[in-house]
Amino acid sequence: xxIRFAATAAIALTALLTLSGCANAETESGQSPxxxxxxxxxxADANNADVMFTAMMIPHHEQAVEMADMVLEKDxxxxxxxTLAQEIKAAQGPEIELMNAWLEDWGLDMADDMGGMDHGDGxxxxxxxSELDAANGDDASRLFLExxxxxxxxxxxxxxxxxxxxxxxxxxxxxxxxxxxxAAEITIMQDIISSL
Length: 196
Prior knowledge:
Layout: H1 2-28, H2 48-72, H3 79-105, H4 126-134, H5 137-165, H6 169-195
């Protein structure tokens, strides 16, 4: 999985550098591209950190939504966990669509190739997901919370890197939004765990 992630990261960086080189060549030749007024972001607005953050955060969010779906389909789940899972889906679903649109605007389509992240990014393994899928009642509530805390911590680390290294204003703003929302949710989840 780490090899796949590293290879995909290299592809992302190569794609960005290639596109940046094309943009620089056009500028040097005196031909200025004429972006559509509907373009929200151009490749010139995004650096390597922006591309990596966006391409990595999409599958990260997708897994969070999958985890929320799992727990929402179960019986006997704590009502506070149900509310939290619904809120996670409501927040992260639109963010996935937004980030996919950015990659498309930047001429990149790598979201499907970025799923090989390891636990360092807070991603759950296949066995983690199977364990959550098999759990019921309070056990499922507790396991969901424990796993989602780790998941959120990984997202916060990725977002902090984007704030430090990114240059795209929209991507940096999303990173700050992720930090604020998920740090608050971690506190809520810790409180729920302590009372289960």
